[in-house]
Amino acid sequence: MNKSDNTYAVVKVGGKQYKVATGDVIVVDRQSGEIGEHMTLELLAVRADDGSFAVGAETKAKVTATVADHFLGEKIRVFTYKPKSTFRKTHGHRSRLSRLTIDAIEVAGKKEKKSGS
What is the span of the domain harbouring residue 105? Predict the structure, then answer.
């Protein structure tokens, strides 16, 4: 990505919002796609290289990403207890995550591609 390239988008993946640019790698909740599969992300807002900004339904842009990897997140330990009694319980949790690589942000016919490919 060039330093002068100011195109970015705000996308929604799995109930969370991410600010992405072409070539970024984001870690999101597990997606249903296979490794190497291309997917289109839900677009909330986009800022084009020419300085125009569009939000919501007026965005005529598309963000495509590739599923790079599926993996388990770091283990989280949750300890619960009740005071003045002997109740103690430990729970563990590992989130299922996916790594997405942002391939392109297409803004009204213009296409911002990852440099080097």
Answer: 8-110
pLDDT digits (tens, 9 = 90+) for 41-98: 999 999 888 778 888 777 788 999 999 999 999 999 999 999 999 999 999 999 999 9
In a domain, residue 115? The reply is no
Q: What tens digit of pLDDT does each residue of 6-41 get?
A: 889 999 998 999 999 999 999 999 999 899 999 999
Number of domains, the chain: 1
What's the chain look like in SS3? CCCCCCCEEEEEECCEEEEECCCCEEEEECCCCCCCCEEEEEEEEEECCCCCEEEHHHCCEEEEEEEEEEEECCCEEEEEECCCCCCEEEEEECCEEEEEEEEEEEECCEEEECCCC
Q: Determine if the pTM surpasses 0.85.
A: no
Classify residue 13: in a domain, yes or no.
Answer: yes
Residue 24: Cβ-neighbour burial (10 angstroms; 0-12, 13-18, 19+): middle
